[in-house]
Every structure is written in C-alpha cells, then in structure tokens.
Structures
1.
Amino acid sequence: MSEKDIFVLGIETSCDETAAAIVKNGREIVANVVASQMESHQRFGGVVPEIASRHHVEQITLVLEETMKQANMNVSEIDAIAVTEGPGLVGALLIGVNAAKALAFAHRIPLVGVHHIAGHIYANQLVQDMKFPLLALVVSGGHTELIYMKEHGVFEVIGETRDDAAGEAYDKVARALQLPYPGGPHIDRLAKQGKPTIDLPRAWLEEGSYDFSFSGLKSAVINTLHNAKQRGETIQPEDMAASFQASVVEVLVGKTIQAAAHYDVKQILLAGGVAANEGLRTQLQKQVEQLPEVELVIPPLSLCTDNAAMIAAAGTVLFQQGKRATMALNANPSLLL
Amino acid sequence: MKVLAIDTSTFVMGIAVVDGQIVKGEIITNLKKNHSIRVMPAIEALLQQCDMSPKDLERIVVAKGPGSYTGVRIGVTIAKTLAWTLDIPLVGVSSLEVMAASAKYFQGLVVPLMDARRGQIYTGLYKVEGDHVQSIVADQVILATEWANELKAYNEPILLVGNDSSLHEATFVETLDRVQLAPATLHNPRPSELAWLGINREPEDIHTFVPNYIRLAEAEANWLARQQERTEC
Ligand SMILES: [Zn+2]
C-alpha cells in the first residue's frame, strides 16, 4: 500500500464489555482494551441492562485513556472513529455512541456507525485477509446467523435463529444443570468428560432452510432432566452436556457446510463468543475438510468475544467506502445488517 | 472562562455557553424527544452560532441527576468524554439544584421536584440566600405525601418548581398552608444557571465521575434484599 496509513479508533458498548481499540489499515491491532463487567452480572445469572449501562459510564473514559496510552497516540491523530450503533442493549449502546460523537466533534474526526455483527465478521480481517465470496457463521449469546458476503461491506443474512440464540440455549441448559453463569464454557468442559448417549432432537427445519431453532432442544433437555428426576433416575450431567452440545454442533456445522457448498464460497469464517467452544471448533475443522477448496478462519478467542478492534476493522472498510455518520447518530437496538 | 453546560436529566434539553460574566447562548427545549439524537447537534449548532470551536472551551458543567437514568447518562457521557479529550475541568451539579436556582428571587423555601412514579418524587429543599440557593435537605426520592408532611415543620412560604410539580400540586396544597406553584416560565431548568453554579466549583475526577441516580438499579436492590434475608435466617 503506497497510500498513507489509516488509524481507526473503535468503540464497543453493546452488552457487558466496555471496549476501545485502535486498528491500523483495518488489519493491524495497535491497541485493544476490554473492560468486562461479567463478574458484576454473575450474581444476577445474566446481564442486567441498567447495571450494564451504569458500568459503561464508569469505564468509558478510563478505557479510552488506556487505549490511547497503549497506542502512544493522541485522539487528534486518529483518521476515523467507528462505533457500534446496534444491535444490543439500548442503554449500553448509548454510552459508546455518545462518547464517540463527543470525540468526533471535539477533534472534527469522521464518524462511522458499525453493525455489531459486521464487527464480529471483520475480526477475521485482523487474522487473515478475507477472500470472497465467503460465508460467516456468527454464534454468540445474542446471535446465531449465517451471513454470505460477496464483497467488502455487503452482507446477506441467509440464515438466522427463529427463537433462542445458541449462546442463550447454552445459558438456559447450564441453569437446568445447575452450572454457573455464563454456561457455555461449563457445558463445553463437561461435554468433553461425557458421552452423547441421550437422544435429543436436531432442528433441521424445512428442506433448504439455513435458519436455526434451539428452543425445542432446550425444552427437550429440561423435560428429560425433569422426567428422570420424577422417576428417581439420575442423568450424568456430563452426558447431558455432551448430548446437548452434539445436537447444537451438528446443526450449526451441518448447515454451514451445506451453505458453503451451495454458495461455492472460498472462505468460512467463525465469529462470535461461542466460537470459543471447543466442540464447535473441532467439528467445524473436521467437516470443512470435505470441501478442499474452502479455507476455514477462526480468530483467536480474544477476538471472538466482544471487543472494539473488530469494530475498528469493520469501520475502516466502511470509512474507506465513504460511509459517514452525523452528530445525530443514535443507538439502534434492533439495527439490521 | 468559556463554559459549556449540558442538562439532559428530564425531558428538558438544556445547552448553554457562558463566557466569563456573559451568557452567550442557550438552547432549551421541553419535548418528548430523544436526547441522544439531539444533544450533540445542539452543542455543535450553539458553538457555531457563538463562533467558538470545541478547543476554545475551558470547562464543562453537567447536570448529574437525579432524573431519567438514560437521560442523565447521555449528558454525563458527553460531558466526561469532552472534558477528558479536551483536557479541561468537569463539574457536576445536582439537577434539582439547577431547577431551584430558577427561583432564587423567591422569598422563602424552594422545592424542586421530578416525578419518580408510583407516588414518589425526586426532590430536595433549597433556601434562597442572596443571589443563590442553598441546599437545606439533600436530594432524595420520597413519597410526595410523606414529603408534604415533613415540610410542615418549616414555617416559611414554599415554592414548587419543575415541570412535574403540577402533577403533585394537590398533595402539597392539601397539607401545607403557604405553598404555591412556580409560574410556567420557571419550570424548565436553565442551562445558564447550571453554568453559573458550576463555574467556580471544585472539579470532579473525570474518570470516576458518575451520575447521582439516588436509587440503586432495581435488580441490585432486589439482590441486596435477598442477601439481607439470607443473613437474617
Ligand atoms: Zn457480540
């Protein structure tokens, strides 16, 4: 690249992480700071929106300062500010959006609004160049989506959940197994120790659909546990975790492979917090081998969970495409991709 | 000193630019519209009208609550971020004190109030002293009926201020002899008063500065109540 380097400051506050980062040319992380509130929400068994919003106000300037310090830069040296405008918790999003607008205003820096899922997908750009067309499987506490991209900045949602997100199903099943919040990592760990011996449904939905549904599976787990208890039988939690995980992973991976073949993609990207799940990573790696032309990219865990480097990476592309937000930018909790 | 004042704690959006002894400009609206969409454009427009750039600002003063949780957070977030990035002092002032300041020439006691639902109000008691108001009873959340009773102890005329005061007027009139509602033109908190209140005050630590919500988040209050039960058992 002969042109001048582009530095983008990303800000992300859509859920329970207050995050800021600086990314160079959309690919290189210069600084990346994430302040997690997880511990604060643990006692409630889930994220409490009002408490999340309060924490964001406490953290926002500290996180920004730490980011600038890590980068050894001043805000005035930044070329653009990218902020998550949605989807997410509205009160939480508002903190990032208003901080971003204040910074952009103070230094007359261009501002770009970024969709949270676009951010998750562009986390991959920090690891490896994206090759189009590509397919992204985004799985997190709030999302389960298959997104087809034929070029930069253009997203087509080809499949999404019709009820619970995969991460949500993990949390609910974990609660049924009396595991602490957040449940995903605990189920993943238990699943490794157990065997998928319990018969649970797979929600393939109608032929050719890339949509997902996890509420039936969640109910099946809860009913099976309940019935066993009534009969005085014990189910090994390890086996239940393994059986539940096997059902989720089979459907997620199965639909991804089908869609990748159908759309003839060059790359499959895994994104979102559930990408940390070892069962999912392993199965996806194994199944992608069926498609020798397709490359699988899984970013490191720190880039799979919510962070602002991914928002800066996505924001860089949008900035280069000329997208700009005004001082009237608002948080949009149900923003469409 | 060039001061920018921001108040978004109720439906009233107030932005003021004060330069030394001169109030250069104010934007005040009392609309049920989204602060997040309107505050930054209003600040941008007002500074432009005043021929000022953000770098000219020397102090930010913000209404820190109580009020709408989301509303207060929008103002406080903008104020903190501007103060941090422009490297200038930040001052937080009680949103109720700003309301009371509009009535500083009233002879007696001033009760600013905001509706806090289910019969409750955010309020405080302020006494007019010369050209300013002094806090007598700290800002609190209380049942309007209970507050009216407590105010019986003061043998002075009382003025109710704030756009929500008409909602609770009857409660106070029933209980108190010398109480009146401020005229409509005094109900919107004035951002220029906010700027005046903050111009000489000790600045906050920008990073740790948070709104004064008065109330805990509901989930937190419930959780603490459960912990309490547990220890009592
Ligand atoms: Zn996410």
Note: Strands of chain B lie at 2-7, 12-19, 22-30, 59-63, 90-93, 109-115, 120-129, 132-143, 158-161, 179-181.
2.
Amino acid sequence: MDAIRTLTGPIIPLERSNVDTDQIIPAVFLKRVTKTGYDDALFHSWRQDPAFVLNQEPYRQGGVLVVGYDFGTGSSREHAVWALRDFGITAVLGPRFGEIFRGNAGKQGLLVGQITEEATEALWAVAKASPGEPVTVDLEARTATAGGVTHDFQIDDYTRWRLLEGLDDIALTLRDEDAITAFEANRPAWMPTTQPVREGTA
Amino acid sequence: MGRTLAEKVWDDHVVVKGQDGSPDLIYIDLHLVHEVTSPQAFDGLRQAGRGLRRTDLTVATEDHNTPTLAIDKPIQDPTSRKQIETLRHNAAEFGVRIHSLGDKEQGIVHLVGPQLGLTLPGVTVVCGDSHTSTHGAFGAMAFGIGTSEVEHVMATQTLPLKPFKTMAINVEGTLRPGVTAKDIILAVIAKIGTGGGAGYVFEYRGSAIRALSIEGRMTICNMSIEAGARAGMVAPDETTFAYVKDKPHAPKGADWDAALEYWRTLPTDDDAVFDNEITIDADLLEPFVTWGTNPGQGASLSGVVPDPASFEDPTDRAAAERALAYMDLEPGTKLKEIPVDTVFIGSCTNSRMEDLAAAADILRGKKKADGVRVMVVPGSARVRLEAEAAGLDKVFTDFGAEWRFAGCSMCLGMNPDQLAPGERCASTSNRNFEGRQGKGGRTHLVSPLVAAATAIRGTLSSPWDLEHTPELHPATTGEEA
Ligand code: SF4
C-alpha cells in the first residue's frame, strides 16, 4: 500500500444520498476473481446515462468524489472500493458512510473522510460554479481545501496513521503473534470446530 | 457498572487491548467463506506466502452463484463456474472444509453455520458478507467483513476492531396473528432509517423478541445491517439452548455443561447502560411492505404509497421521488392494489423450515393467481430435505409454485434467477435496492406470510385479506411456542 500525504484532484459532485454498494458495483461484476480491472463496472447502471456525472469531462479521469448521506451502505463487497480506485477516485468525502465500506476503503488505501453537511454543499457548489476545480485533501492536517476555503474532515486516528505510513494490516497484526497463540491456548474446550467433520453431516 | 451482552462477548475475545486509540485485536471463533468474496483473499495469502492459520475454525460453502435448477449439470455461466471452481480449488489447497453443490450441508452461508451447530452463543463469527449479522440471533457477535479482512482472518484468526456502540431495540407486547419477525425488523428500519444504526451493535430485547423462535430471531438479526448496524444480537435463553442442543457440532457431555454455564452469564446485566435505545410497540404492528428502493422505505400494508411532498427532510423527499420513479408507483395508491409479477420466498432472511412451513400453511389447497410466477427456494440443502420430508414441496407445487434447489437465488442478480426489467416482485429477501434482483427489477420486501397471500391474490396482500384466514403457524406469530 502506498503512503498518502496529500491528494489533489477535481471535485466530482455526486449529489445523491443512500448510494448503496449495489449501485456502486452491481452483483454481476462480482463474479470476477481478480482484484483489479473494475473501472468499467463502477456505477454501471447510472453510467448508461450520458448525463451522469462520471460521463462528463473533466471527471472521466477520476478525482475526489463528494457524496451525500449514507454512501456505501449495504453489501460488504470490497469490489466497490476496487471499482472506485480503478476508475481513479483517490478519496471520497461525505457526511456519513456505510461502516463496512469505510473499513474496506481504509484497508485498500482509499481515503474516506467525513465532512459536515455544510462542507458537502459547499464543495458541490464549488464544482458546479467551476467544473473541474480541484480540491486538495491533506491527510496529515485532516483538511480539504477548494476554492480558497478549507474544511475539516474526520478520519479515525488509526486509519489515518496506517494510510500515512502505507502499512499492511496483516503484517502489523503478526507482530502480536505470540499473544494470539497464548489466547488460543486458553480458549474453552466447548468452542466449535469445523474439523473433523462430525457424524450426521455430509 | 454492569455490561451488555455485546460488551461481554467483546471483552472475552480481546487478544490485545488497543492503546491510544488503536483498535483492539479480536479473536474470531468461526470464519464462514463463500465463493464471491474469497478468491482475492486466497490470492493474497498465496502472494504473501502465508498459510491459513486455523482451518478448523473455517468452513466454506457455495451459494451466491449457484443455479437452483439442474444442479447436477455444469454451471452454464462461465464466470460463475470459474468462481465456484476457484473456491473448490482454494479450499483443497488450503485445507478448508467445503460444502459444494449437491452436498447435504450446502446452502446459503448463514444457514450453514447454525444448522451445523457451529454458530453458538458467545462466539465471534465473521464472513465476507454483510448479512453475517444473522448469527447474532444466538447471542453471538457476528458481522460482515470485506475481502481484505477475510484475508486478515485467514492469516491471523483475528481482526483489529474498534469497539462498537450499543443500542437497545426494545420490542414489547404481543404480535397479532399474521404479523411476524420480518414485520418487526421492517418497522424498526423504517423508524430509524438505513443509516440510523451506523456504529452500533443492536441488542433486540423485550417480550416480543423473547417470544420469537430462533428462526424468527435470525430474520430480525439478519436485517440489522439494513439499518446500518454492524451487528444485531439477542441474548441466549432456553429457546436458544434447545435449538443448538444436539446439532452436529454443538458441544456434548461435559463440554455442553460448561458451555451452558457460561452462556447463562451472557445476558445484559440489569444495571448496564446502552448508548442509545428505541422502543417499538409489538401490539400495534401490522404486516409491513416496502414501497421504495431501500429497506427503510416501508409502510403498513393497509396504507398507501406516500407522497414525497409529505417528507419534511429534503434528502428523504428527493430519495422518495427517485424511488417512486424507479418503482413506477403513484402517491396515494393503496399498497394492496399493487399487482406483482413474481413472488420469491427464499434468501437468508426467510428460507428456513419455519418460513416455508408458515407459507405452506397459507397456500395449502389453493392455486396461485393467474400470471404470477411463484418461486420457493429453501436456503440450504438440509432445509430442502426436511421440507420434503414434511411434504411441503407437494404443497408448493400443487399450488403452482416452483420448488428449487438451495442457494441465494433471486435475492441478488448473480445467478440465473433474476427479474426481467420492469418486473415487480414480492420478495422475502432483505434488499430492495435498484436492480438488486436483476437489472430494472422492482422489489417489495415482505414476510413469508405476506408473500404467500400475495401469491394467492396477485396483488400485495396479507393473510388478513384472505377470505378464509388459515390457522397461522404459532412459531411465527410471536406466541409462546
Ligand atoms: S441470500 Fe441474499 S442476502 Fe443472503 S447471503 Fe445470499 S445474496 Fe446475501
């Protein structure tokens, strides 16, 4: 994972709330077994409409997506994050996110920052007044600056630290392998195991 | 101060306590795997040269992509086939137990854990699927994870997690006959909205929850995610213990006694404090149905399609306008007058034995409405066998319904069972998102009883609308079973 400090790109205004992960990437694209190559799948159904924002220049090369309430709700599919990333979305800013989506994004180096409703409206207004206007997202300072105005965003300390350092979660956890082994030694005997397969099952 | 159920389960799974705002490292007792969200995780292990730490705490099944007809033939869609084959290959390579198509334990991943007796009170369960919240019905802490986390659990059997906040959902009173667990959860989501539970673990409490069977509790916990909650739980009680006892992998002998002793300590202490709380009056609930394109857009079936102008919040108003356009509905239309093309009884929300039995009680001896397609899809191969042993398949086929093999089926547009564009469906599943059941398809979420009554009348209907109200299955009606 690459370390992130600041990101700059056009504000892409997605003026919708309740954008669930089925909209971000429909289930038919989940049949692939790869982790990349999902740019065509992003918002697949909405992209059939030529007027949809991602079909407009200068947004077709990606940028910073600014969204309404409850973005990324629903299914746990990490493909939603891969599709955003593959399209060229480097950060998503909005007032509230689906929890699993936010977690997935953090693991994949997609910055998800929570901004106020006012900041959301302000960024949309900037994009509408001058399409293509860039926003600079500063992860260190937790700010998003566009049109000369700086807005704070929230991201939890731990995710921020990992993104700033570009750290792999699994390697971090394996530093505690001794603690995991010790915990396992004390698990109660009644805890279920899947193997060996018990009688009465196929 | 006392602790809640969720806090107790959490505390007992902390491997390393997080310092200075870093997350706790939580041990995972059971990892359920399916074909859609695992291939990239197995690949990640391979690339990093890591093994799967605890194959004995991992089990895989095939559900999302699988056809529900002709399961003995090769899967037609090459991409679906490849995904299933990839899972089989990965399971063999990493030593993971797998229940493949045709196996008695194959089925929707959220039916497999409980029916094997792997889902137990007080354990932690994860799966790369948001409806993992289902398993909370046993008093387990169970939640969906993304593919990176799937890989993390495979490699370490743990997850770094921040503690969730707790919300009590109190459902007090007695459900009227014909009103079910599904109606409770649809009403909860309509009340708090699809984002209202963000950051929380729900604990469903109160007399109406206690009176529910485990299968009803699973229906409720299943849809916790639709209110934005990470997990939903019900404290284990005698109903829970009776359900898990004698399941193949449930503890036996002295282990059972030890488990039982621990499980009895799990319910929330009287002096514990929840971060938030809501109350629902079960006596007032009616059969519920969604009219929009998220599970929070629902109303009592006796009502009408709402007028977007009636929503004060501009965001809700815009969402309602968009939803009605997609659903092709006019404000003011009586919900009961909406005709459907398809009725789908299935999915991890409502495809267990109790759901099928309840629907069969309504359909028995009747014929489906003209022109309506009715699909009944058991959630697991085991449920299918049990339903056939009870003669339910005959009830469904005599009625004119299709009786299928187990899988996710029409819950999501990933296998051959899909709605055609513009088709309208009364569905016992959990998501009515645009295109969820097939591109352009329109979904109304309902209970199995409403689905059955709708199949008879051809328009959205509850059992209350039938000429001769059949005797309703007590387990689903919230009476003491
Ligand atoms: S039945 Fe539907 S909600 Fe449940 S696991 Fe399958 S696709 Fe997901």
Note: The first strand of chain A starts at residue 6 and ends at 14.
3.
Amino acid sequence: MKRIFAREDYCLGCRLCEINCLVKHSRSKKIVKAFRRERDTAAPVVQVEESGRVSFALQCRHCDDAPCIEACIAGAMCRDPKTNAVLCDEDRCVGCWSCIMVCPAGAVLRGKTRKVASKCDLCAGEDAPVCVEGCPNEALTYEER
Amino acid sequence: MKRDKTKYVIVGNSTAAIGAVEGIRRLDRQTPIVLISKEPYHTYSRPLISYLLAGEVDKERMYYRPRDFYERNAVDARLGVEAVRVDADALAVETADGGRIPFEKLLVATGGRPFVPKIAGSDAEGVFTFVSWDDAKAISTYIGRAAPERAAVVGGGLIGIKAAEALHACGLDVTVVELADRLLPLALDAKGSELAAAALRDAGVKLVCGTTVERILASDGAVSDVVLRGGRTLTCELVVIAIGVVPDTSIVEGSRIETDRGIRIDEHCATSVPGIYAAGDVAQGSDTLTGNSRPIPIFPNACRQGNVAGTNMAGGEARMGAAFAMNSVEVFGLPTISVGLATAEGEGYEVLVRGQDSARAYRRFVLRDGRLVGALFVGDIDRAGIVTGLIRERIDASGIKDLLLSDGLGLISLPAEYRKHVVRGDGIVV
C-alpha cells in the first residue's frame, strides 16, 4: 500500500502540513472559516516535531501489524479492506485510549471535542494526503515502498 | 474432499478467538472453521459491558465485529453450545449436548471466569459478578426491578472501578471495598492510587481500603447489608464481586495438556500437545519483563495470541514477540495508562518521577540496567505508546532520562536510529 514517508533532512518545520490537515479535517474545509470559526473544534492529525535544527512531520504509520487494532476494545480501529489504511470508526470508539497506550509513534491523539481517538485517515477519497500535496520541500512523500 | 475431521476448531468467541479466525484467514481463505461458544451472542466486547450498563453504548455497539463476520470468514459459529471436554488423545472436543467434534487443529480460547471467594451469604439475590454481557443484563434487570439505592463493589481493581463507574451512572450510591491499602494496587503506585482515589471521591463514590467483605446479609432473600472484616457494616441492596478473573481451564482438566495457573503455551501459542493451541485469558505464556510464565489477562495480548495461534494453525510461522502487562483505564474521568513493571521499586530499579506535586499529570518511569521496564501515566496520557514502544524494543534509555521527564514527549527526543525505524513505519511491532 502507499504510505506517507517523512524525510527529516528536507523538513523545514514550516507546519504547512498541520494547517492543511486541520483544514481538510474541519467542517468547512475552508482555511479562513476553519481558522476563524473552528479553532476550538478542528485539529490536525499530523504533528510536526522539532528539536534544534531537526524536524519532521509525523502521522499514523498505518502499520502492517497495527498494535492499535489489536488493542481496540470496541472494534473501532480497523483496516480498510480496499486501501489497507488503519481507520478509526469514531461512532464505535469509546475513548478508552488503549490505542494511545500501544502506538509506538504516538500518532493517535485524543479528539479535541469528542471523546474519541483521532488519527490520520490518509485523506480518504483524495489522490494523495493533503499534508504531502502541500509540502513545499517534498519532506513528505506518498509512495509504495 | 470430505474430511472426517474438522480442520480448525476454536472454543471461545472473544478477542482471542476472533484474532485466531483473522490469523487463519490471512493464510487460508476457505477451509471451514468451527467456532463453539457457550454464550449465545455474536462476538461482543467484554470490556464494553460497563459502558453498556452505564448507558454509554447501546446493544448494537457491543458487537466486536460486523454482523456478517462469521459468514464472510466461512465460520460455522455454534453459539450457545458449551464445550465440556477436550480429548487430547483422540483430538476431539466434546460438547454439553453430547456432540463430538474431531479436529486437526484446536484453539482453546475459553477466557477467564470471575474469581469468587467464599463469602457467607453470597447466594443472596442482588449479588453479581461483572465479566459478561449476561452479568450486565442481570444487574440492569435487578436495578429496574428492585430499585436498589446503594451498592458495594468488592475489589478496587480494573473490573471493580468499571463496575463502580457503571453503577454510579445508574444512580446508585456506590462504595468500593479494596483489600489492599489502596485503589488499583497492581496498576498504579501509591501516588497514582491517591490521584485515582481522589477522582473516585470527587465523583461521590466511597472507598474503603484494607478490608474486604466477610459476610453478606439478606432480608427476604435479597442483599441488605455487607459486613466487612473488622466488623463494620455497609447497608446496600446490590453487591458486585469484582476481585478478578482466573483462567477457565475446565475443559482441559484431566487431559494431558499441561496447565499451571492457565494453559501453558510457548511463543507459538502452542500447548504441550501438538495441534492444540491456547490464547487469551485462559493461557499462560511468558512475561518478557519478568521472565516468568504467567497469565497476562489483557485485551491486546489476547488478540495477539489469537492471531499468532491462528497463523500457526494455518501452517504459517508466527511468534508472540514481547508480551507484558499494560492497561489503559479511566477512573471517573481521570485517564491512566500503566505499562510493564509500572509499580516496581527497590534494588535493581531506577525510578524517575515527574509531576509528584501535580494533581492531574503524574508520570513514573522504571528502568532496569538502563532500559525502560515500566511506565505510568496519570492524567496526561498523550503519546504514552512511545514509551511502550521503548519498553518493547528494549531501547537503552540511559541517555534520555531528562527527555522522559521533560514537557513534550516526542519521537524526536529518541535515538536517531530508533526514530527512523518508527517514522519509516515498516514492521513496527508493539
């Protein structure tokens, strides 16, 4: 399957990926509205980590052997049979945070407004995730390896 | 080709059993699987019974897999059929209705049964255990019919806390009685317990530690009071016994399958008898962190064991890898995550603590020989899995102690090789 890969050496730490991700996962999908009216509800599921001159963007790795799926008590975390992406069905999630306990990347977040796990969905329906598309320095790639 | 033996038989229907079905089906799309479960339900999630009783999830959300799961996976699910004995010599499972199912490969995933100590009067009406859907139903029915106002929960561990939460949500006045000197003694250290106890009390639930229920008193056959060791009496009309679960090994007793506290399994989840596997709360495998063989009755472990067993049953090759205790439990709104030897102290252990004075954000890390072997997160649990990963992968943490204790817990603080391994994303095993 295609996955997102981060290239530390290319990452500028500009956080455009976070902005694009937030907008994509906002209700309005519009940057002005998302930042004006949805700041309390919309949140990115990609996180830029930065330390000194090193930075990279991190989102769910969509592991082949996904520990979050095993740990999910509600059957909410599951693999999309078509794309193999690891997705959280927020209507089934009970917010037990077992996924947070086992994710080695720390890529599952607590939802901002609802008590459910929040994570990268590879921008389901798009050709490429918006974090990758919008990265100005190709520090994020979306490819099969 | 018609077989006189069923290729795959699974006894059980919870996460270990379902993990096995999924493990088998990754390698073998077709050969029928017979699954036997004494409970009449489509596979459901046991940990959700507290959410169900509390009214937070409905019946539809109890199911662990979609309704067409058995059909889609060619599983002949015999629900409501009790397996009573495994004939480990002739390789067959005997059922309570007189049936006999010869098998080639068997998975025993019978889970745990609630441990109920001998308490005088425990046969009174209004006394329950809390591990199955039927338990939740029975409690709910009793609340509707007898309108109890007060409840005593015997046991302040994970099940007890969840039972207390649910009963509290049902409007009952709840008291938790814990034998140890503090709440959640296995998962939390003293400071963590203190924070959890405060969350419990803030919600209006009472806690009595250092004692247990010695006798249950009844009036007209129904619970009226419990008498604690030491003589104190609590008036209550409902009692939940939530001390813990023990491996339900009954169907293999008397067979040549080796058991200790649970059914002994190796890293392939194979028992001592070729062709027979065990997984989940009934099984006893190796604890990576202590080196001991012991049951680790936790959800992720059950799922993984089932998966490993299923893969091996289908002719593949899978091993458990690292296994150790871990629990994520919210105590009346206070999230806690406890991983590995989270409460260890004393010789050989180095303990790092952050937020000792904090009411809501406490962390504790335990190192042995420079490697992390335990972690505790209370209040702020974000990104806790990064530490679980370090424990699992046995990463030398002697150089990152400051980072563990700093504000942001991120991958960027970790050794570059490990970070790249995780970020690249392939083959991460936790």
Note: Chain A touches chain B through 42 residues (CB under 8 Å).
4.
Amino acid sequence: MSAPGNTAVLHIATPEGVTFSLPLAGPVTRALALMVDVAVCQAIQQILFIAVKVMSVFAEDMAGGAAYLIMFLIAFGYSSVCELLFGGQTLGKRIVGIRVMDERGLRLLPGQVIVRNLLRVVDMFPVFYAVGGVFALFSKRCQRLGDLAAGTVVVRTVKVIPPDVESVLGGKYNSFRQHPHLEARLRQKTLPEEAQLALAALVRRDELETEAAIKLFGEMVQRFREKVKFPEETEHGLTDEQYVRNAVDTLYRKAGG
Amino acid sequence: MILDLAHFIKRERPHWKDLEKALDAIQAQRLDLSDLKASRRVLSLFQRACSDLARIGASNAEPELRTYLETLVGRGYAEIHSSGRRAHRFTPLKWFLHTLPQTFRRHIGAFGVSVLTTVVGMFVGGVLLVAAPEGREVALAPFPHVAKQTPSQRVAEEEKNAKSSAEHLERSKASFSGMLMQHNTKVSISTLALGLSYGVGTAISLFYNGVILGAVCLDYILDGQIVFLIGWLLPHGSFEIPAILIAGQAGFVLARALIGWGTREGLRTRMREVTPDLATLIGGVALMLVWAGFVEAFFSQYHEPVLPYWVKIAFGSLEFAVLVAFYAFCGRKSEPGKEVRP
C-alpha cells in the first residue's frame, strides 16, 4: 500500500483492467483541515449569534431556542452539508487540498457522508480526536473509525494539468539523429528510470534553481557520455541542457521516427 | 523506449480534453449518462484514457503525465461506475413513508435487543430504588430536582403553582424546546456511535437510561402518583423513548456489522451494506426528537388545573398508537422483494 516516500496510496483496479492510484491524506494534513474548519465554524457561529442577539430584542425566547439549534446544527451539520454539496470537501479540506471519497473510487453517497460525520463523536474521544488519530495512524488507508464504518477515505487532490512534454520534445533540431546506430545504442543502454529522470528534469527545468539545474544537467550528460560517445562535431556547441534534450528526444522517439 | 511520447501526447491530448469536458458536464448535471448516445461517447473516451494509462504505465514515461492520466481515469471511473448509484434519487416523502419504516422492520431483532437492554436497566433502577435508602439518590442523581422531593410533594407543588409555572413557561418554551432537541439528539447520536465498541457502549448507554427511567417510574408508582406520571411522561415520552431505542437499534446494527454475525461477507462489505440503514434510522430518530422536543416544551410541562391529565394521557396514547402503526404498517406494499432506498 505504501509508495516511495512513505506516502500511503490507494490503488484501485478498474474492470477495464487498469489500476490507478490516489495519494491518501495523512493525519497531520487532516488535522490542519480540521483546524481551519473549526475556525470557520466559530466564525459562522459568531455571525449567527449577532443575528440571534438582534432577534432577542424582539423575541427573547425564540432567540434562545434558535441559539441552541444553531450550535447543534453547526457542530453536526457543517461537515455533512459541505461534503455533500462540494464533492467531499469542506472549506478546510479545500484549502489544504484533500477530499473525501468512496474507498472503491466511486461517488460518495449521502448515507456515507452522514455516517462518517456522526461517528466523529467516537473518533473525538476522549480529546482532540485521540481515538480517530490513532486509528488513522495505524490504518493502511489512513482511515479513522468513521471512515472505516462509512467506507470512505480522504485523498489528496492533485493538480490535473497535463505536463508540457511537447515543448521539450517537439519540433526541435536534434544533431544525434545523424547517427542512428549511436542512437540505437543509447536506447539500448539507458535504463527506463534514467530516461524518466531526464525527461522529468527537462519538464521541470523552470522550477529548478539555476545552479542546481546546471549541476543536474552536467551530471546527466556525464552519465549519457559513459554509455555512448557521439562524434565531437555532433556535440559541438551543445549546452548540457541541449545535450539532455537531444538524448531524451532520442529515447522517447520511435526508432527510425 | 517503446513509446513515441511527443507523438503520443499530440495524438491523444484532444481525446483527454474531450473526456475532461464530458466529466465536467456530468458533474454540473449538463450531461446525462442515461442518454445512450452520450454514454457511449463518454465510455469510449474513458476506455481510450484507460488504454493510454496502461501504455504510459508500461513505458515508464513522465510521472506527471501518469498522474494526470490517473486523475482523469479516476474521475471517469467514479462517474461511469457510479451511474447506478444515482438511479435512486432521494425523495423525502418516499424516504419517510417507505424507506424509514422498512429499514426499521428489517432490523427488528436489533430493536428487540435495544428494548430488552432498557428493560433490564429499568428493572435494576427499580431494585436500586427499593433496596436501599441511598439507592433512590443514586438512581435519580442526574435529576436532583426530582430526587430532593417525594413525588407527592412535587405533584402538590406543581398543581399549586400550575398557573404561575405556566406563565413562566410561556416565556421560555422555545429555548426549552431547543435545549431538549439538542440534548436528546446528542444522546441518540452517541448511542448509535458507541455501536463501534462492538455494541458494549450502546448497551451501557441504553442500560443507564433504563436505570433512570425505571427508578423514576417506580418512585411515582410507589407514591401513588401514577396518573401524574403518565400525564407527565406520555405526551413527549411516547416519541422520545422510542427514539432513543431506535438509536440503540442503529448502534446494535453497526455492532453486528462489525462482529459479522451470521454472514460470510468481509468487514468492508458488511459495513457498506448497513451504512444507508444507519443514516436512515438516525434520520428517523432526529425527526422523532424534534417532535418530542416541541411536545415536551409546549405541552408536557403543563399540569392540572391548567391542562387536565386525561387530555395529556389521551394525546400521548394517540401519538404512541400513530407511531406504532407507522413503523408497523407503512411501506408494507412496496416491501416484499423490492427494497426502496433513498
């Protein structure tokens, strides 16, 4: 269940024969979201209490009744209503970047949302979600008791923009193409992980510090040169980044393409 | 490398974008999967994305692209494979008249355990009351105002001050009602949630309620104040006590699913099966407690001479008869073999 970097991951196999994985939110992330939600509930409560105070001038008894109901509805209703209306997210969860979902990857049902939130009373026992926190720590799917009972998990929402691979690979001159036999040797000797690393470095080059980028591309070039030595005139004038770009183009292009 | 990544992305990206748009439309309810043409198109796009993910997975391509495709396939999977889940659209009236009483009857055994636990508690409460002089104080500890007087003293006082009490109550009915609803619903939710302790917590909660109820009832009966007791408790108790018992029923349903008694299904399957029933039962409990809160604040606390006891008893009996009839007979026609769920 654990992926590299000790991130708990939920693997779901579809009937189409594909397995996809979703990163699970840990207890710390969830605690942060909870803190935000507590603050939001307090703020809503304070605003409504101002309205209740105004109401008490005209109808003191009704205002008292309303105050009890407001406290109760916010305590038990806030999370359920938000999760039902906003795709498994409360405001805290949205800010932190997590959401509740069915443990089989399906849409949440209202019953699941209600049950997971009602069972908070046990997860909160005795203080500060001690029971729920301990269960989430030791659960494979980071589930508190409410999640276990309702069949839900909390996953991290990941950004869904496709990477700009084309700007790295598409339409640029590659001097290595003049030597198909050397390209073939490079493809043969390069491990898939090395190719993946080189591509990732190019895609994320703008996110790297200048010095770190220079060092990284330098090391990669050295590694590729150990595998295949291209003629000097082919490499002439190429920066390390351009060298890696050529290598990646070679690796991710069909032979003869 | 097997995959020509740049060409692959250039060729497939339009299809991914189409799938994204279709999924957005489904979520915004602009696209209905019950439309055969639309569902075929979405399914075809989804299967194409699945196939792309499989190819990417096999070729160790760029991890960010894999994450993107996994998210896309995850979204598609949730929408396409959950379409059956949306078929049962929630209709409050259907839920109230069919689902709630049917769910109650489906778990009638758990309700029996709930009643039995409370009755045992009531018996122990009665024994505590008569066995030792300090037993009364122990059993009635949560209600010091009841414990400090004998029932006869309280009845005399209530009837003597009936008019002034009624006037006082007139000014605090709504807040009293709100407080009762809040408190009783919290107790019910705890009783349900404690089912997670394999039912032990639920049983303790019901037993404790039974001890108090038994002690109060026997205290009034032994003091000859049966009419006052029934007139006081029946109007709101006819809903409040069954509500707590149904919360206990839900707690025992949860406990049974945890233990896995009488089934070979795995824990997750068992829990999945009872989740809608738990939500339904606690929804019914909440409705009953809202009604009981209103009745207790607006009706139960008025005593003779302001409100004759026979009126209170008749009203309470009628409520109880309606409640029993509702849970026993409502939704019977649609019950056999065709479950109605929200």
Note: The two ends of chain A are 39 Å apart (CA to CA).
